[in-house]
Specification:
binds glycine, Dna Ligase, domain 1, alpha+beta, D-amino Acid Aminotransferase, Chain A, domain 1, Rossmann fold, 6-stranded antiparallel β-sheet, binds adenosine monophosphate, about 30% strand
């Protein structure tokens, strides 16, 4: 089989890496990929949002399966176009991807189908929004209703912080014109539960925990994710089973009932509260960087599982027992603005599994080319061993322009 992975980040690198291990697969293409992926895969210079270009490439190269990484391509209707052209695709239609694209849609769906989540209200008027905050107090959570690359969420500890966020989003249109969702603050441990979904069929993957804040001790601004590990020892199998039964399966069913059947990866960003697991958010795709620690733990064949699910067949995923922990190396300045083009040493000699997200290779040298740059994977029999291994890998990469968290996995090691 020939596979096309769409996207250009560490997540897509991990998907391509795993797909290439499948005995069913002869060639893995990536569109557009990045210089790091070019070492192992054929990268084709087609933008993720060039639906026509991707369909043409698939037809000309007889692609047997397309796996879509980024939400922007999903929301842009790439899966719709591929399906229209009879090209098998693992990824939801634009209509179904709204579960990620609109927080209000996701919230309304959960309310209607009794899926546990935080209380909320939606506003487009600043005065009404701030009145609601005054009424309910802080801490509270302010979310821009639309795609903001994981950065449109403010957990406000005080009413003043909430007010500043509302001004940014509703008066100053920081992310564009739009609405905000104001949510009840939930306290508890967060974990990411992804599942292969096709209609009502839900096949859960092993769970992971992301680290969203930029700096050690979970301080600093929210990012796309600074590191991850799997498994998550303090979330028991009972809690995972409960999450599948009360959250993932009902939501897959709800999407079918609403006439928006979901095919692809459904990602539950969940939190274990005193009242059981609740939903923080849904994504319509693989999580980044969770995928970079979950797929290395998958023993069985991802592509076979995807084909089974696309054919509504039962499928049984096998997992390695060993733990996996990965650290993001990011450009100083991220998640704010940052320069590109700084030298990175040690990539070619690093003996650890590396996934590239924002590297460029120029004149024989590696450079930074994005906010999140590299993902260094460690493995071990325990999270502690995997952590030690990952940071040994991190030491092998040097650059004046990169920073990383030094405490990935800290909640599992307390
Ligand atoms: P989201 O983009 O919705 O996943 O939010 C980003 C991060 O903000 C989450 O991973 C949480 O750490 C935090 N967060 C979002 N919503 C809530 C909530 N209702 N209660 C507590 N923390 C939240
Ligand atoms: N790591 C969170 C996300 O992919 O949205």
């Amino acid at each position: 089989m020939k596979i096309l992975v769409v996207g250009r980040g560490g997540r897509e690198h991990a998907i391509a890496w795993k797909a290439a291990q499948s005995p069913l697969v002869s060639t893995v293409f990536v569109a557009p990929g990045n210089d790091g992926m070019k070492q192992d895969f054929e990268c084709v210079a087609i933008d993720e949002k060039d639906n026509g270009g991707i369909v043409r490439f698939c037809n000309e190269n007889h692609i047997d399966l397309v796996i879509i990484g980024p939400e922007a391509a999903l929301v842009n209707g790439l899966a719709n176009e591929l399906t229209k052209n009879n090209i098998p695709v693992f990824g939801p239609s634009a209509e179904a991807a709204i579960i990620e694209g609109s927080k209000q849609f996701a919230k309304d769906l959960m309310l209607k189908y009794n899926v546990p989540t935080a209380r909320y209200a939606t506003f487009s008027d600043y005065n009404q929004a701030i009145a609601y905050v005054h009424q309910h107090g802080a801490p509270t959570v302010i979310k821009y209703d639309g795609l903001a690359a994981g950065k449109g969420v403010v957990v406000a500890q005080t009413v003043e912080e909430a007010d500043n966020a509302l001004k940014d989003m509703l008066l100053n249109a920081k992310f564009g014109e739009g609405k905000v969702v104001i949510e009840e603050f939930l306290a508890g441990e967060e974990f990411s539960l992804m599942a292969l979904v096709n209609g009502e069929q839900v096949v859960p993957l092993t769970i992971a925990q992301d680290h969203k804040r930029a700096y050690d001790g979970d301080l600093g601004p929210n990012t796309g994710g600074m590191g991850a590990y799997s498994p998550v020892p303090f979330i028991t199998q009972d809690i995972i089973d409960q999450s599948v039964k009360t959250i993932m399966e009902p939501v897959a069913k709800a999407m079918v009932r609403e006439g928006l059947p979901f095919t692809g990866i459904l990602y539950g960003g969940l939190i274990l509260t005193a009242d059981g697991p609740k939903v923080i958010e849904f994504n319509a795709r693989f999580g980044d960087p969770e995928t970079e620690v979950v797929l290395p733990r998958m023993k069985s064949d991802l592509i076979a599982h995807m084909l089974d699910v696309l054919n509504h067949k039962e499928t049984h995923i096998e997992w390695h027992r060993e733990a996996c922990l990965g650290v993001v190396l990011a450009t100083k300045g991220y998640p704010g603005s940052y320069p590109k083009g700084a030298a990175i040493e040690g990539i070619d000699t690093c003996d650890h599994l590396l996934f590239h997200s924002g590297t460029a290779h120029k004149d024989g040298h590696w450079q930074t080319n994005g906010g999140r740059v590299l993902f260094v994977v460690g493995k071990g029999n325990t999270i502690a061993e995997a952590q030690k291994d990952a940071y040994e890998g991190v030491k092998q990469i040097t650059s004046d322009s990169l920073f990383h968290r030094t405490d990935i996995g800290h909640k599992a090691l307390r």
